[in-house]
Design goal:
- It is built from 10 helices and no strands.
- By secondary structure, it is an all-alpha fold.
- The protein is globular, with a radius of gyration of 18 Å.
- Helix 2 packs across helix 4 and helix 4 packs parallel to helix 8.
- It has a single domain, classed as Fido-like domain (Fic-like fold).
């Protein structure tokens, strides 16, 4: 993966984004918000289609035949993503309070959010077993401490990827860890000047395998490369809009 080329594209994107017509930018980013919400919830099993997600989020029309949890998951994800963008506009660094706020928004009307689990959990189909509550408590504290220095160990994309895989490996919340992890990964990307990305639900097997490779083998490369490819695709979209 040629990270230098991607970093060069990021600089072009930051310089040329102001030249994208306002309507073009706003319509694309609104479409991305809907696509990202759809993909991130669908990866976790939400059955709303992309069009149903659009109707719910854009038109405010409830979807018949869907359970309330799926509706809340979708509406909550939009709120959480907008909270992330609000924090980025203020250049606030990611920390424990923000992550708990993100989780609380995701879990609104579902479970009590922002509270770490006090019981063991297992991930279906995965070799990796998340740590027990006592060990989890130690690992999540180390995670927040590592946020300050891991940035020096990795490039910006790798750091965002590490934020995701390490957090979801710890699995600190009873539910919603995947959605939270994808949001905090985008948080780190946007804080570094990159656009947000969306992992397609159609690539969930490749995505889960890359997460498992890190959790079991401590191998970040497959996941970081996947994220870098998605970042480059997004940068190319914005650069094409600016022509």
């Amino acid at each position: 993966m040629n990270y230098n080329e991607i970093l060069n594209k990021k600089e072009q994107y930051l310089a040329r984004k102001i030249h994208i017509p306002e309507l073009t930018l706003s319509t694309y980013e609104n479409a991305f918000e809907i696509e990202y919400t759809h993909n991130s919830t669908a990866i976790e099993g939400n059955t709303l289609t992309l069009m149903e997600t659009k109707v719910l989020l854009e038109d405010g029309i409830s979807i018949g035949g869907k359970n309330l949890r799926e509706i809340y998951e979708t509406v909550n994800h939009k709120k959480a993503y907008r909270y992330v963008k609000e924090c980025i506009s203020k250049q606030i660094k990611l920390d424990e309070n923000i992550i708990k706020d993100i989780h609380s928004l995701l879990m609104d009307n579902i479970i009590a959010g922002g509270i770490y689990r006090y019981f063991d959990v297992y991930i279906s189909g995965a070799e990796h077993i998340p740590p027990s509550p006592t060990e989890m408590d130690k690992q999540i504290k180390n995670f927040y401490a590592d946020l300050s220095w891991k940035k020096k160990e990795f490039n910006e994309i790798e750091f965002a990827a590490w934020t995701h895989v390490e957090f979801v490996k710890i699995h600190p919340f009873p539910d919603g860890n995947g959605r939270t992890s994808r949001l905090i990964m985008n948080y780190q990307l946007m804080l570094s000047g990159f656009p947000a990305i969306s992992i397609s639900k159609d690539n969930r097997i490749l995505y889960f395998n890359a997460l498992e490779d890190y959790a079991v083998n401590d191998n970040l490369a497959p996941f970081a490369d996947m994220i870098a490819e998605l970042v480059e695709v997004q940068l190319d979209r914005y650069l094409n809009m600016s022509k």
